[in-house]
Design goal:
This protein is α+β, with helices and mostly antiparallel strands and about 140 residues long. The chain has one domain: Hotdog Thioesterase (Thiol Ester Dehydrase, Chain A), CATH 3.10.129.10. It is about 15% helix and about 40% strand. A hairpin with a 3-residue loop joins strand 1 and strand 2. The longest helix has 17 residues.
């Protein structure tokens, strides 16, 4: 399943400037999602992070990974219309700077679910290079 920005906004409550994924390129509801984020110098965070050395904040990459996982969770029929809250991150590793012009490929595979709580293995790459990896936790509200 592929989703454009308009379709993503029907699933996620996030809006500019906090919608962190531009396109879903693959998704198996309840299992995994793969999304893209085209990093642009026009994004507000680059005004202050850092002037003269634009680097995408790691917490925003984590948020993009969480939004990707939320798509995998919220495309399940029984979760339609719900909100997935970012509840935590473990074993986070930042391995590469992400700068304007990079295209992030974000993948989140749901690995555990119990009631309204779930977690997934998340990886953000630029090309073949891993930028961030983490275990992310979600809570359905």
């Amino acid at each position: 399943m592929e989703l454009n920005s308009d379709e993503i906004q029907k699933i996620l409550p996030h809006r500019y400037p906090f919608l962190m994924i531009d396109r879903v390129i693959d998704c198996e509801p309840g299992s995994f999602a793969v999304a893209r984020k085209c990093v642009s110098a026009n994004e507000a965070q680059f005004q202050g992070h850092f002037p003269g050395l634009a680097v995408m904040p790691g917490v925003l990459i984590l948020e993009a990974l969480a939004q990707t996982g939320a798509v995998a969770l919220l495309t399940e029929e029984e979760n339609a219309g719900k909100v997935a809250f970012f509840a935590g991150a473990k074993n986070v590793r930042f391995k590469r700077k992400v700068i304007p012009g990079d295209v992030l490929e974000l993948r989140c595979e749901l690995t555990r679910r119990k009631g309204a709580i779930g977690s997934g293995k998340a990886v953000a790459k630029v090309g073949e290079e891993v930028a961030v990896e983490a275990e992310v936790t979600f809570a359905l509200g």
